[in-house]
Input
Amino acid sequence: MPNALINENSPYLLQHAHQPVDWHPWGEAALEKAEREQKPIFLSIGYAACHWCHVMAHESFENGEIAAILNQYFVNIKVDREERPDLDGIYMQAVVAMTGQGGWPMSLFLTPDGKPFYGGTYFPPVRRYNMPAFGEILLNIARLWQEDRHAILEGAGKLTAHLQGLLRVDADANVSLTRETLEEAVMEIARRYDWKHGGWGRSPKFPQPMTIEFLLQRAIRGDKLALDMAVHALDSMAKGGMYDVVAGGFARYSTDERWLVPHFEKMLYDNAQLALVYLHGWLLTGNQAFRQVCEQTLDFVARELTHPEGGFFSSLDADSEEGEGRFYTWTIAEVENVLTSVDDIEFIKAAYGLTEQGNFDGSNLLQRVMTDEELTNRFHMSLEDVHERLKVCHQKLLVDRSRRPRPGTDDKVLASWNGLMQIAFAEAARHLQRSDYLEIARKNARFLGKNLMVDGQLHRSWRAGRAVHQAYLEDYAALILGLLALYQTDFDMEWYRNALQLKKDMFQHFSTPSGDGFYDTRDDQKPLILRPRDLQDNATPSGNALAVSAILQFAALEGRPDWQDQAAGMIAPVLEQAVQFPTMFAKWLCAADFTLGPVAELVIIGEMEHPETRAMIEVVRKKYRPHLVVGHSAYPAASDAPAILKDRGMVAGKPTAYVCVWNTCKHPVHHAWQLEQQIESLD
Output
């Protein structure tokens, strides 16, 4: 008999629907059951692509004896963290407070009213890894609930009060926003940088695209140290291992400090942010390898993580039928069987250092050991021939690999992650002149508008024709930024109007009473033990950091200094922490850099079909310009167009460009070369 998860929409929850555990989804029915029966809640939070979630499911939740204990003494609730980031955020803070660390699977024990009193992550079925057996933990907690419930309730109350205290934001900023402040943040990032292997930290090592983005923005200001770190990090990750050189796309993180052995799941949000930062790296440096990584990553998403109607799927699993990571590894025999040509075989062996014993579990993960230049010398080839041979060999390997049993796909479509990927496709279409990328971005925007907007309200998750869960702050803000990126690519007013409506809804339903920021959940959502307001960036930017970035974009496009002041007021309270812990607040630092300006506004008035109009638009797309917003319209501009387009005409009846910086405008110009001179003078 299936349990109550059988009616859920999440692939992760459906994976547990036929287990002997009497699982329930989070909701009134489960909470009322716990209250009625006066049982503690066992809350398990995970996600479909999580390897250790699968391990605990197999070891414990499919175990009849453990299931019997859970069913007898607890009300058991399963949550997909990707569908419910509010629950994940609240209870992750609880686990970290109790144990000093967090992760997934997350395992918590709650009072019937949802207050946490004990928790951890993965628990083994028997004693190992210096951890008690899961069954022992369950029986001990059941006994304490019966014998010493008062102490449990008292401890749960204190922990909940502690979590509520974490929501307070210090309004008295001790650090002011200056160029020197951001230079301090760069120096702190440099102190933690791994100049040997690239990136930050030891193992596990995460890619940190927001930090790299901030460094690129500082590099535009002339910061050579920031540029050196960004380029080194991008180079290091692009060699392979965590990056899939055969098909494109990045795994979640590296289990070692060399980027060699990944945790093999591929997440949409990682690939959205990394594709974008490699695009910006190419624009800033001209390094063609960065462009290649960007395009291969977006091509992977278009090929393997896109619904036929345009939505982007959430992830590929870490596991396949052959085991964790086996989908991505190669033996020498497999490579020889695919490539057949002796020259190609020797070339790939040299490029990736392939050996009989391998570098991962008896097989080879593909990570470059020779540079392109070293390959040219070794095989007496031109650089162009090296690139072409790599491309051909990779394509042959990809065709062969596609015949292997694929990792599972989590095919739900999440609003915020789709917004992040929409930004990447829209910007790549703009700068790479890829009309196919533009069509993918447009199709995605239409898909989200059709399927995630239900009765005028944005929803978080869609799958199999059904939208579920009210959207969160991060969903609204990420979609706003995606639509603004799309608008500044094709200048279709539909995207701008939709972004403005989302902004209106965001302010109406998420603003704090003091107006100093936003809550993560809507004001009409069913209340939890607290209303979360997470300011720290994690694998994805925090909702508030995304929101402040959106406000800054609107402030420039609408000529609203009051909105800019509001954004600065949101940044001020987190600035001290951002300087001390920059990799945890990197999206905030990007917003702070934008706030410092100078922000340039470019308006181009003229028919899009006119050659000079198009030439002027293309001028500003040749470089990485993170401090520029662009609007275009034929004359006259629509009544609901961005305010910077209003009252702008075509001087002497010719396409005309206006460049303004902090409300001071340069002389209108009619030719691309004139506009380029004005834009270059801003750098």
